[in-house]
Amino acid sequence: MNRYLIIVIGIIVIVGVLYFVITTRDTDTGSRGDFDRFTSASLTSYEGDDVSLEEFRGTPLIINSWAVWCPFCVKELSDFAELQKEFGGQITVIAIDRQEPLAKAKGFTDELGITDDMLFLLDPSDSFYKSIGGFSMPETIFVNSAGQIVVHKRGPMELEEMREHVNKIIE
Question: How far apart are CA 48 and CA 68, in angstroms?
Fold first, then answer.
């Protein structure tokens, strides 16, 4: 009995470590043309307008996939709003909500007081998340003005790490 318990605990520890490693690492991609793989995502603004990420080609972008139910995502939203204020016109921060209704997403960003601080989009079909091969939450893409994904961050970040990644895409 004790041997089986040790095996089960060992498996749980290994799975936990693997999950932590996968969700907290940065993936520096630097591959060309990566921007094209998610420009066809079907997105909607809070005002109900269709928005294509293609509209932002040539601009350094920070694109964050989030949801109200994700505690790590929620914590980051205010930091992303601060990042947009700090870097102003040098970058565009876009937060894409995963499959939640407008009332839920906008109600939440209104409650945080950040709805007007950056661009919030809705992704009812989860097309953006799927296009980046998402499997953790949050997921954030840092794209330079040449359309290259410089960093694909899986998992949460602090504001200082966000600043470091922004400096990589505006150089």
Answer: 19
Neighbours of 61 (CB within 10 A): 22
CA–CA separation, 92 vs 160, rounded Å? 17
Q: What's the average model confidence in pLDDT over 60-72?
A: 96
CB atoms under 10 Å from CB of 116, counted, come to 11
Other residues' Cβ atoms within 10 Å of the Cβ of residue 105:
24
The mean of the pLDDT values for the chain is 88
Alpha-carbon gap, residue 21 to 6, rounded angstroms: 22
* Closest residue by Cα to residue 144 from 43, 57, 52: 57
Write the Ramachandran bin of 113: left for phi over 0, alpha for psi from -120 to 50, otherwise beta: left
The percent of residues in the chain predicted with pLDDT above 70, rounded, is 87
Q: In this predicted structure, what is the pLDDT of residue 108? A: 96
Measure Cα distances from 95 to 8, 92, 126, 138 in Å. 39, 10, 13, 10
Domains recognised in the chain with CATH numbers: 26-170 (3.40.30.10)
Handedness of CA 95, 79, 113, 73 (dihedral sign): positive
Structure tokens at 80: 């992303």
DSSP β-bridge partners for residue 95: 64, 120
Token digits of residue 41: 């995502």
